[in-house]
Amino acid sequence: MYEIIETIVHSAGEIVLRAKHIDESVQEKSSHCDLVTKYDGMVQEYLHRELLTAFPEAGFYGEEEEEHDIAGKAAYFIVDPIDGTMNFIRHARHSCISVGLMKDGQMEYGAVYQPYTGEMFTAQRGKGAYLNGRPLRMRDVPLSESIAMFGSAIYYRDTIPATARLMQEALPLVLDFRRSGSAALDICYLAAGRADVFFEACIRPWDYAAAALIAQEAGALVSALDGTPLRYIDRCSVAVGTKTNHPELIKIVQRILNEPDMKGRIK
């Protein structure tokens, strides 16, 4: 049933691959580090049209729109047309298209496509996670055997101190850190075994919705950084890891949140 979503997402990737003169279409959104290009809008318009043609009863919750058509909808898409826009602008070739389907209050399906490598990560709730049709399963490791990936939550300046503290506490405990500029790909890379734990102090649902399901279906534990369930509404912190390193990460966060100057620094 959901293979059509994968087909639509794959086709949207052609817009990214054909993009030219990207820097000429860059505009600021909320700040000088929150940027958008005309291609973000083009990809989202394509996804909006094609997904709602295929699923006319669904709503649409996309990054590049001011109003979201999800009120009263039993099912709706959560869409990031280009996750890793800064990478896209700088021609780093490390960006993706992320489409998640929320149904009856649960993530039902997710597809994350990296058009430059041709990697399509997918998952359906209860049916497992896949990379280009190959099943994915995370190995369980402690922090001491983990490569950690993280997002800097740079749009939300009030979270920077907490991000820095978490890095300070976690870095001596892990094998190494990675920062790629695409939360969706980072989380999918956990599912693929390329890293083992991910955290970010504040991101939007379209950055993590599809990837979180993919990681869960590959065996990950997924939550906000305080250990509560992901909210999928507005801003939220994210922690993704194995059955062993996820609780270890949450304990570190709990210690940090008890520090007087850290109150409210993690969403």
Largest sheet: 7 strands, mixed
Q: Percent of residues in beta strands?
A: 25-35%
Low-confidence stretches: none
Class computed from helices, strands and strand pairing: alpha+beta
Strand order of the biggest β-sheet: 3-4-5-6-7-8-9
Q: SSE string, helix = H, strand = E? A: HEEHEEHEEEEEEHEHEHEEH
Backbone shape: globular
Radius of gyration from CA coordinates = 17 Å
Compute the number of strand runs.
14
Determine the mean pLDDT: 93
Number of helices: 7
Distance between the terminal alpha carbons, to the nearest Å? 35 Å
The helix content, as a percent range, equals 25-40%
Describe what you observe in this structure.
With 267 residues, this protein is of the alpha+beta class. It is 31% helix and 28% strand. The protein has seven helices and 14 strands. It has helices at 3-17, 38-54, 85-89, 160-170, 183-191, 205-217, 245-257; strands at residues 27-31, 34-36, 59-62, 75-83, 96-103, 106-114, 119-124, 128-131, 134-136, 147-150, 176-178, 197-203, 221-223, 236-241. The protein has a seven-stranded mixed β-sheet with strand order 3-4-5-6-7-8-9, sandwiched between helices. A hairpin with a 2-residue loop joins strand 1 and strand 2 (34-36). Helix 1 packs antiparallel against helix 2 (38-54), helix 4 (160-170) packs across helix 7 and helix 5 runs parallel beside helix 6. The longest helix has 17 residues, at 38-54. The termini are far apart.
